[in-house]
Every structure is written in structure tokens, then in C-alpha cells.
Amino acid sequence: xxxxxxxxxxxxxxxxxxxxxxxxxxxxxxxxxxxxxxxxxxxxxxxxxxxxxxxxxxxxxxxxxxxxxxxxxxxxxxxxxxxxxxxxxxxxxxxxxxxxxxxxxxxxxxxxxxxxxxxxxxxxxxxxxxxxxxxxxxxxxxxxxxxxxxxxxxxxxxxxxxxxxxxxxxxxxxxxxxxxxxxxxxxxxxxxxxxxxxxxxxxxxxxxxxxxxxxxxxxxxxxxxxxxxxxxxxxxxxxxxxxxxxxxxxxxxxxxxxxxxxxxxxxxxxxxxxxxxxxxxxxxxxxxxxxxxxxxxxxxxxxxxxxxxxxxxxxxxxxxxxxxxxxxxxxxxxxxxxxxxxxxxxxxxxxxxxxx
Amino acid sequence: xxxxxxxxxxxxxxxxxxxxxxxxxxxxxxxxxxxxxxxxxxxxxxxxxxxxxxxxxxxxxxxxxxxxxxxxxxxxxxxxxxxxxxxxxxxxxxxxxxxxxxxxxxxxxxxxxxxxxxxxxxxxxxxxxxxxxxxxxxxxxxxxxxxxxxxxxxxxxxxxxxxxxxxxxxxxxxxxxxxxxxxxxxxxxxxxxxxxxxxxxxxxxxxxxxxxxxxxxxxxxxxxxxxxxxxxxxxxxxxxxxxxxxxxxxxxxxxxxxx
Amino acid sequence: xxxxxxxxxxxxxxxxxxxxxxxxxxxxxxxxxxxxxxxxxxxxxxxxxxxxxxxxxxxxxxxxxxxxxxxxxxxxxxxxxxxxxxxxxxxxxxxxxxxxxxxxxxxxxxxxxxxxxxxxxxxxxxxxxxxxxxxxxxxxxxxxxxxxxxxxxxxxxxxxxxxxxxxxxxxxxxxxxxxxxxxxxxxxxxxxxxxxxxxxxxxxxxxxxxxxxxxxxxxxxxxxxxxxxxxxxxxxxxxxxxxxxxxxxxxxxxxxxxxxxxxxxxxxxxxxxxxxxxxxxxxxxxxxxxxxxxxxxxxxxxx
Lengths: 356, 259, 303
Description:
Number of strands of chain B: 0
Number of domains of chain B: 2
CATH class of the largest domain in chain B: Mainly Alpha
Largest sheet of chain B: none
CATH topology of the largest domain in chain C: MetI-like fold
CATH architecture of the largest domain in chain C: Orthogonal Bundle
Low-confidence stretches of chain C: 299-303
Helix content of chain C: over 70%
Mean pLDDT of chain C: 85
CATH topology of the largest domain in chain B: MetI-like fold
Order of helices and strands of chain C: HEEHHHHHHHHHHHHH
Radius of gyration of chain C: 25 Å
Oligomer: heterotrimer
């Protein structure tokens, strides 16, 4: 590709109070979001959470019920899809089956001089490593190749923002990881803003600069992957991004180091306030990732139920005296055997206090 | 929907329904002149019900349609089972051609060739020959409807029954046929309507005393517009509309319940 | 030799009845027609010669074969009337098919683009006339098209024309009738194809800057060509052999093979010639039938 020029003339995407109602169902509920230019943003959530509807509103396929969409300082809320400086890569790729790969990629270049369009198509084919396949029909390509044609086609018009709906959803597991890296590399080179919709937390964490977690039409938390993983704002986010132990308890007083005591039925633990700052005495849960759980001589009493060898780590199932189950994950090596009594603890910085 | 597509649809439906609407309207016209509206009247309906030959031919049509659709339903269902459940067999291409050929064959050709055959084998022409002819050309239509359902049917249900010890006949009787019943009914209904509607084939193969309703109507239509036919047509249109509504209501209910 | 498995017997029993029936009433009649088309007319009953003498054995067969002749086909090829009827059948069916494509495409497209919950109702509305008596639907046009009919009445009232037009018993009336009667056959298969098109293809085109018109011409229409072809075959094949429409709406100069066959048979009682016309008709439609056999079959299961 000749000049993957950064889009200096367009600042990022800004959504204000964006809402979509289908009848009485609120699919997207008052989303406020500002993306910086060239950002790789992931919308993460289970199916039906409204993330695809949000994407389709940005692309122009669904008129919002309320709210505005601005891109590069321009209000694009009322623009039809074909007038928006935004392009989309469809989950099914939506490649035109009756056109060659080159014709697919060049479809959006109508009106440009022939030679220029042809050169641009060539450049895009090289960008996605499909040189020489321009004359093929989409159905003769592999899944991964089709995905790359869809990407090249969506990039052809040098969009100010590229929307990708489950871009890796149709690929095999092995191919997914390889393609994730490629997608990231292409985005870095072009510095085009990417908004990816996905239900796969690992994919979101691997790709995104920032992740926005959606739940029932609302954007419940936005932040870099590591922050979301380590400091989830709710049980929902904590559970969505990975395996987590939730220990219920009652909140104790704050201490000067920023941690707070939580009184559980098994004893008192210390954890970090997740930001919701409930009052003393409130019912809360302490969220701890299995890899943060340490087994040893101190902490809450527990019995090891089982140990599963997973190659790079061993996962242990634990039972607390009240019967509740927890999971601990540690590198292979010494550790209590199934049936052994042990104690579990965790660093207060690795445990988050969340509303119950 | 855009204005363009809405206009296309409106004009298209208007084109399809305007002639039928005109016909219905004129059937209630007291005047026997087409262009003159003589006020609302049921006189043509009264005339219709005292038209003995017309009623007789309607009964002939009904008899033919019932018998022909019964035969076609049996033959068509068997043909569909042969196609979809017994896979490859010798002469499958010929069998396919035999079943579906009459659907696309020009009607005049079917009528003529059957008549020549009936004469050749010395079969007296009458209701029986019309029934045979109609059953022959309707079989393919039933086979199409039943095959489509068979293709969409979960084969594992039959395999599960066989696995539980049911022989081929028991699988057919207890699993396949009950699941096929709506499609068989729909195919039979289609055959019934096609038989009721046929003019050309019946004209060739019928004999004295076996005049079907379309044949009777045709001989009157050739003489020009006739308000009594308008009344007869209106009754037929109303009947068929009711039948289609009932059929779609039935299928919608089944679709909602069973998918 | 092992006894056949019970399911093999079942398979044979299942296909035997339709096979026997269709051999007796479809295959055999076709063979007889072919044979009679190669005979000479006679005034006897049955009015054709030679009659195959089933008792004659081999001699009967050979004398029968010697008497076969191609006179009827030569007549068809040489006679102006039959040439005109053949061309007429092709021309009317071809022109009406073209007209149906032009009319049916926007209607099918509008159906496919209609709101999802309305589509079953709209499709049913297109199908219902198909279930209504063919004869009656054609008859309805007589009242509209005749000299003192509704069309002229309206046009005169509106001042579009000063004198009643002659529409009935002209080519125009035949074209109207063919288009009217076969419109559902064009719309339904086309709608089925358009409805199955992945909506994201249209959206992708819009996303890439295509206007609605460009989307239709570059994406929807090319991908609907199989439906157009299926609809065209579904209409063309029966229209070639059409009898009722040219007979009721056409004039005496409207020559189509179905009508010629009818009059050869019922009026002239020339059975061998009628049989030859039937074989010719079959020869014309066999091409499209074989090419589009899948869609000819599939198009019927929509109602």
C-alpha cells in the first residue's frame, strides 16, 4: 500500500446518549463514549447485550432512537451509510459472491480514476498478503483469506473509523490467534480507529487498547484490558473477563493504606475498594482471580478437593468450611494434594471489593 | 420500504386483483349489461341455482376432483417416499421423469395423448377417464410438496425408531406418515384445486354426460360475458379464498407449535 | 442367493404403484401419440392409419413400420399456418416472458424488502389468484377489454380517448392475459431468491458508498439472476402450449400451437396432424424443461 496516511484531519468518535429502542425493548441505552483517534477499541459482551446494534448505529444501518454520533467533529447521526466516512467489516464478511476478489475490494472506489483505483486495490491486496489472488472468486478462498478480503475491502475507502463485527468469529481456533496478531499489525500501520465487537474476552484483551463492557444495552465499564481484569467494577465484569472467586462478606472500616477489611464467615480478609465505596457494614463480595490465591499456612481454612494439571499451571478446587467452593491456580510444582487441609490467602491489592 | 417499492407492490397487487374485483362487483349487478349499473341484485345467484346443467357439471367436477386427488395423493406420496427415503435405485432417472414430466408437459399434449390411449385400449370416456387423466398430472405436484417436507424432516427420528426395533413398515406407519400428514394434506389440496380448475385436459378425455364445471363455463364464456357466470365465479373465488385462508391459518399454527 | 432385505422389498413396493400408473397413463400415451403422428389420417374410427394389428405378430409389426410416414411433419414444416403458429407460440410466450421479467422483478424486490412481519401476508396475496380458477381469471378480462367494456368506459370518461379502442381479440389482449395469468409464477421464484440473499451484502454495498440504485444494479439484480431464469422458464414453458388465453382473448389471427392442435383435433378431426403438433410442442419445451427442471419443480411448492 502506498501511503497509509494517518487521518490527522479526523479526530475520534464521540457518542452522546446513543439509544435504540425496538418497540418496548431498549436494545442500547444511553451510551456515552469518546474514542481517541487511531484507537483500537473493543465492545465486549454476550450476545443480545446490544453491542452489534451499537455498531450498526455507528455504521448507519440503524437509525438511533435518541442521541448523537460525531466523527472528526462532524455530526454524522443522520447520514445514510453510503455517505458516512465509516466502513464496516461484516461478521459473515458479506463478500459479493458474483465478483472477483479485486472487484470486491475495488467496489467502494467507484468514481476514482481507473488507474488509481487499480493501484489502490493492488496495494490493499499486498497489505493483506493476497497478492496474485485478485482474479479469484471469494468461494475459492479459505476462511482466513476471505476474512482478509473483507478487511481490505472495508479499508479501501480509507475510512476515518473501521467497524468490525466479530471479525474472527468465523475462523478456526488456530487461525484466530494468528489473525488477531495480523489485525493488530494492520491497525498499527494504518493508525485507523478500529471498533471491534466481540463476545470473546480473550480476543478483546489481546486486540484492544481499551475495552468497553456492555450489559443489557448499557456500557458498564470502559478501560484498558489490564485494568478491567484487575479492577472490575462489578461481579458481571469480573466474571466476563475470566475465572474469578467471589467471597461474600460484610464490609469493615477503611484503613489508611486504602484497603478495607471484609468480615467473612471464615474470618477477616483485606481487599481493595473497587470504587463503589459502600458504607461500613454493607454486604459485599471480594473478587479474587484463581492465580492470586495463595495456599499455605495462613488465611482462611480450606480443604483441597482436586488438582487438575493444565500444563503451564495446576488448578485446585478448594472447599471452605461452609461448603462453598473456590479455585486456586498456580505454576506446577509443590502444593497440597487432594484431601489435604490448607489455608488460603491473597494480597489485598489483588482482591477487589464489589457490591454484592 | 421506499416509495418506489411500495408503488411497485401496490400496482402489482392492484393488477392481480382488479379483474377479480370487477367480476365480483358485476355479479351483483341487476342489469345484464356490463357497462350499466342497474343496482344491487342477487338475481344472477338465483338464476345460477336454478341452472340444472350447471349444477350437474359442478357435481361432476367435485366427484372427479375428490377421486383424482385421492389417487394422486397416494401415488405422489409413494413417489416422494421412493425419492427421499430409498435413495438410489435402477431407473431412478426414468422414474423422476415419469413423476415430474406431466407437470411441465403442455396440457393439450397430455389431453390428446391420453385420449388417443383411451380410444386405443377401448376405454369408454366419462368420469373415469377424467379421473385417470387428472390423477396422472397431479401426482407430480403432490410428490413435490411431500418431498420438500421429507427433505426437511429430521431423519434421525426414523433412525431412532428403527434402532428401537421397529421394522420398515412400522417406521413408516408410526413415524414417517404422521409427521408427513400436513404435507400430504397440502399436496392433496393442491391436487384437488388443480383438478377442479382444469379445462383443457378434461375437454379431451371426457365423454358424453361427463361435463365438468370448467367445460360448462367455457362453452358459455365463448358466447360472451354472462352475469350468471359472474355469480358462479364469485362463489368459486370466495370458496377458494376461504380454503386458502384456512390452509395458511393451519400451517401458521403448526409452524408456530412445531417449527 | 440371499433373500432381499425387507427394506429393499419395501422400497420396491413403494415405487411400484406410481411407476405402473405413470407407465400406463403417461409413457404409453406418449408413445401412442408419437406413433399416430407418423400415420395418415383416415375417415374410419379411430380416424388414423395404420392401426397396429396386435394379433399380427412380426408380420403385423413390419407392415406397420413400412406404413409409417413423416407426411404430418412435412405438413407442419411447409404449411404457412403451422409455421405461423409455431412462430406465434414462440413470439407470444417470449414477449410475455420478457414483459413478466420487467413487471415481476420490481414486485418481487418490493416483496423481499417489505417489513418481515408483512411478508407472509403479501406473499399469500400474490398466491391467492393462482388458486383462483384460471378460466375465470381470463374470463374476467373479457368484461374489461371488450368494446363496451370497463377499460374503454373508464378511458372515455377520463377523456383519454374519443372512441372506444378495440382491445379484445387483439395481440394486446393476449399479452395482457398471459402477463396476468403467469405473474405469480414469475414473482414467487424470484422473491424466493431475493429473500434468501444475505442482507449484509446490501449493507456492505451501502457501507462502501453505493447508492440504493447502484446496490440494486450491482448486487441485488446480478445475484437474483437464477430466480429470474427460473421464473422465466416457469412462465415460458406453459405459455408456449397455452390454449385458453389465445382462444378467449385473441382474435382469429392469433395463432398459437395449443390452439391449432385443439382445432385440428376437435374441428378438423385430423388426429395424426394434431398428434404431430403435440410432438412439435413437446420438442419446443423440452430444452427449457431439461435446463430448468430443478426450478420448475421447486417453483411449485411455494403455495
